[in-house]
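Review the following:
>
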Amino acid sequence: MDYNRIRSFINSYSYDDAGFLGEIYQKALEAEVPVIRRDTAEFLKVLIKMIHPHSILEVGTAVGYSSLLMAKTLDELYSQDSYSGDNDWHIDTCEISEDRIAEAESNLSQMGYADRISILEGDAAETLRKLGAENKYDFVFIDAAKAQYMIYLDEAIRLSHEGTVIVSDNILADGDILESHFLVEKRDRTIHDRMREYLYRLKNDDKLDTAILSVGDGIAVSVCK
């Protein structure tokens, strides 16, 4: 079965974001800034509307695209009559690059979400460790340095409650994860091995129920028990 053709067919039904959010996405692609893939974005929107989170933690802000995508989705969800008065949500997002933080802050401000999305500046692993146990999130989106995913997961679980959903993006490493250690480029073997260990952990941690999906560059959806 030709999965590339299947993915192309599915993506042919996708729509570009309207307005300024679409401009952010296109600019990021042109500048080769890592942003989530189109099918990943659509999957994330559906998850948000299924879960109804009020507190979200994101690891990896970049220029703020995925934060803004989730913010718009939350606004759409909680603006419905059945959720009237329930629009009390907030997103915390981690980023280390000063240049990207500056661009993200500008994007958040222009879209009117500067007061609903907080950028936690610095190394994500250190930032997460500093968050106290009183910070419990309904939804966690991990999309940063893959070499640190195990650390992010440990902290995400600590900052979660029963039923929290943790999404890990880019877990298939453009297909390299399928290959043997020795068939991967030597420079990529450490990441390959760590991601294999990460997937094993997700599927065998007794604190989690996890499904691994071939959406975008691979997504793992975990629910905290």
About this structure: The chain is about 40% helix and 20% strand. Helices lie at 3-11, 19-30, 38-51, 65-78, 98-110, 124-130, 149-158, 189-204.
